[in-house]
Amino acid sequence: MTSFRCKFSIGNQRYVQVNEWKGELRVDIREWRDDKPTKKGISLTLMRWKNLVDQLQYADQALQNKLSYWIHVGGNVYCNITDNSVCVDIRQYWKPEQELVPTKKGICLRPKEYSCLKELVPQIGKVLPELDAVVPCYLQSDHMNQIGALQCPECNPNDCDKIA
Ligand SMILES: [Zn+2]
Q1: Which of 35, 40, 85, 93 would bridge with 31, disulfide CB 3.0–4.6 Å?
Q2: How far is the CA of 113 from the centre of ligand 1 (A)?
Q3: 12 CA distance to ligand 1 centroid (A)?
Q4: Whole-number Å distance between alpha carbons of 61 and 36
């Protein structure tokens, strides 16, 4: 059973929740309908949430300058801003062949929803004291050499098993 610590509205029946499921904490950004979660959304581990939050300043710059920008959130999850777009897409991708392809698992945040999400970051931090203990990949000791990062499923999700 999933329990949740908090549920904040970002508008248009979309919510950010901190969920606890089988002892794992996740930040879930999702559209709801008739009080039920829909498939439109993304569920982030604490490390992925931290990676996202730490890079939102770059997303803001891209939005301001109408440039494209990719944040690697972890694994095959990316936060993507396209040229001249006002929306911020957080999504699971996969790599069937040479190129990364978006899946339906994700959510494209409209400008108001995105600014609501940003305003909620400190509040989510308050209900998630565990975030302080999360060490981002690039600060972990086994990532100090490049092989460590190449073998990591978070950093190099599609080829990590091919690195000897
Ligand atoms: Zn890593």
Answers
A1: 40
A2: 29
A3: 34
A4: 34
CA of 74 to the centre of ligand 1 (A): 8
Give dist(CA 155, CA 148) in Å, integer: 9
For the cut 70, the answer to whether the pLDDT of residue 1 exceeds it is no
Residue 155 to residue 72: CA distance in whole angstroms: 8
CB atoms closer than 10 angstroms to residue 119: 11
What does the block give as tokens for 101? 């392809």
Question: To 10 degrees, what angle do helices 56-65 and 46-54 make?
Answer: 40
Distance CA 92, CA 78 (A): 7
Domains and CATH numbers, the chain: 3-132 (2.30.31.10), 134-164 (no CATH)
Q: pLDDT, tens digit, for every residue of 84-135?
A: 889 999 999 999 999 999 999 999 999 999 999 999 999 999 999 999 999 9
Long-range pairs, 154-159, Cβ under 8 A, ≥24: 154/47, 154/74, 154/75, 155/72, 155/74, 157/75, 157/76, 157/95, 158/76, 158/95
pTM: 0.94
Q: Measure the CA–CA gap between 73 and 43, rounded to whole angstroms.
A: 12
